[in-house]
Amino acid sequence: RRRQRMAIMVTREPRCFEKILGALQSGSLRKADPALVLSNRRDLEPLAREHRLPFVHVPWDDRLKAEQQALRALDEHEADFIVLARFMKILSPEFARRYAGAMLNIHPSLLPKFPGLHTHERVLEAGDPVHGASVHFVTGELDAGPVVLQARVPVLAGDTAARLSARVQQQEHIIYPEAIGWIAAGRLRLLDGKPYFDGQPLAQPLVRTA
Fold first, then answer.
1. What is the spatial order of strands in the sheet that 200-201 belongs to?
2. pLDDT tens sequence across 46-68
3. What's the CA gap between 40 and 178, in Å, rounded?
4. What does the alpha-carbon distance between residue 17 and residue 9 come to, in Å, rounded to a whole number?
5. For the stretch 154-179, what's the b/e string if a residue is b when 16 or more beta carbons lie within 10 angstroms of its beta carbon?
6. Which residue has the higher pLDDT, 3 or 149?
7. How far apart are the first and last CA of the chain?
């Protein structure tokens, strides 16, 4: 089985992107062959070049034009799957269908709870005792694709959104490279809209507890 070519798409702060690069460098993503980095941020190009990755700048002011440009770049670099690393733009259902079963995202909540933004504040307002992060396949509906791996983080007395966010992010940086490695190795698949892990249907997300 040939190595799967991975595209990384990022629009926001680069910490998630850096952790993926670190996993590539350490060899823990040895089944993934990085194809390109695609971003609306030109300032990330030196980091991509430092790791010998092609960088494609796509302004994201007009979604239709941006997606057309992104699809051309993904085709040109023969990307097999996409990893969204703090990609804070809403992709069209057409784009999501094009990469159905081949696009992963990580979201800072225990989906299906708290899709969208400001998850840490919302968890504290709700008084939930547990928070976390979810790796999921991307579909045309925001944060609604099948969840495959979660990390659970206890909410502590006196927590602020910033403290809670920092602990959740620590877990994100562990579980996301793990799930990326699974899809690169062919262990994680989406068949008929349902996730399979090692050939078995995944009725519930796999869970890591901090």
1. 188-191, 194-197, 200-201
2. 999 999 999 999 999 999 999 99
3. 26
4. 9
5. ebeeebeeeebbebbbebbbebbbbb
6. 149
7. 34
Buried b (16+ CB within 10 A) or exposed e, 25-62: eeeebebbbbbbbbbbbeebbebbeeeebbbbebebee
Helix axes 161-184, 15-26, angle to 10 degrees: 40
Catalytic amino acids?
107
Residue type (1 letter), 175: I
pTM beyond 0.90: yes
Nearby residues of 113 by Cβ (< 8 Å), 6 or more positions away: 128
Calculate mean pLDDT across residues 7-36: 94
- Residue 36 in contact with residue 56, Cβ under 8 Å? yes
CA separation, residue 23 to residues 50, 76, 81 (Å)? 15, 25, 17
Q: According to the model, what pLDDT value does residue 1 have?
A: 67
CA distance 105 to 118: 17
How far apart (Å, rounded) are the C-alpha atoms in residues 51 and 123? 37
Nearest CA to 105 out of 127, 81, 71 is that of 81
